[in-house]
Amino acid sequence: MNHKIQCLITSVDEFKDPKLFQKGLALLPDFGSWKERKESISRLRRQESRLESLVAGLMLRTLLLENSLPLEALSVSEKGKPFLKNHDFHFNLSHSNGYVVCAFGSVPCGIDIQKEKEDRSNIARIFFTESEYALVQKYGVSMFTRIWALKESYVKYKGEGLSLPLKSFQVYPGSYDILSDGSEWGRLSTCISTIYSTDRTCQAREFAFNDYRIAVCSALATEPNICRLSTESLLCII
Fold it and tell me: Boundaries of each 4'-phosphopantetheinyl transferase N-terminal domain copy (predicted)?
């Protein structure tokens, strides 16, 4: 396996077609954690939430099949983090406003995607450190979105859920470099950012396109690109 964390992204748009949605749903297994996901999809009220949960499941299914890993190994920790039993293969999923992303590799990792929204300075005042809050006051909603994604990715990497206070570690966003311009992403940029906590220092990879911000955290470096997974790949039968 590649000794760096790799990332995937896909859009849920094509699954707005009811036939494709049902085809995708039928591909998810009917056992264990897969069955729980299928049942939870049917209970979700918002169409966007149903689409994102379905596509996240299909992305994970495709990832495991392409790496010759058994679907039966999927389980969920006591703190709600999915993992593979008895395999040195780690992954993490996130979704927001029509996109689903996944990070995977040979060590634990965390990924988060966020879309820029309205002013969130009140949230920053509660959950961010003083220096992080100062950055939000200076640079606005874009900086808030970056810091929030970085913090979420670190919490997911640690696998401790809400028991890890967001003020217990400090993030330092880096400066973006442009990867591509004028593609389907608009302008795709990336950078390395730093996360300090009492027990370790981590390097996190950030990606930015349009109004979206993605952060990936792990003990290993992350590949400086993000690969798009096609609808055809998500619907593969292996």
Answer: 36-103
Cα separation, 152 vs 162, whole angstroms? 10
Cα–Cα distance, 212 to 223 (Å, whole number):
18
Q: Which two tokens stand for residue 191?
A: 């950078």
Helix axes 32-43, 47-66, angle to 10 degrees: 160
Domain residue limits, the chain: 6-234
Quick count: other Cβ atoms within 10 Å of Cβ 55? 26
Architecture of domain 6-234: Alpha-Beta Complex (3.90)
Between the CA of residue 56 and those of 14, 32, 181, what are the distances in Å? 14, 16, 27
CA distances, 28 to each of 58, 80, 134, 234 (Å): 7, 19, 45, 11
From its phi and psi, is residue 120 left (phi > 0), alpha (psi between -120 and 50) or beta?
alpha
pTM over 0.90: yes
Report the pLDDT value the prediction gives residue 199, as an integer from 0 to 100. Answer: 77
Tens of pLDDT, residue by residue over 152-197, are 999 999 988 778 899 999 999 999 988 876 566 678 899 999 999 8
Cβ–Cβ under 8 Å, residues 80 and 155 = no
